[in-house]
Specification:
Layout: H1 4-15, E1 37-41, E2 56-60, H2 61-67, H3 72-79
Antiparallel strand pairs: 1-2
The structure holds zinc ion.
Zinc ion binds near residues 62 and 63.
Length: about 80
């Protein structure tokens, strides 16, 4: 699971290429793109969240930043 590319491929296969939270189409090739993909920890790493597929989703930069200190559920709820 240390290989980011493999991880991202698995996430795309499971979830597709859209942001898990807002649903915009993500960019995977251009790190400078506004919608460049990030890997978000549903349960934050600094609160003990695991670095495994079940805890990871693809998210756009904005959502990743916005979510930062919120729990997954709080953030998901605030999206709709
Ligand atoms: Zn988003």
């Amino acid at each position: 699971m240390r290989d980011r590319k493999t991880l991202i491929r698995k996430l795309i296969k499971r979830d597709g290429t859209r942001c898990h939270y807002c649903g915009i189409e993500l960019a995977f090739d251009d790190p400078n793109a506004e919608n460049y993909r990030t890997i978000d920890h549903k349960f934050p790493k600094d609160r003990g969240g695991r670095e495994n597929l079940g805890n990871l989703v693809l998210a756009c930069h904005d959502c990743n930043i916005a979510k930062k200190n919120k729990s997954y559920k709080d953030f998901k709820d605030s999206q709709s």
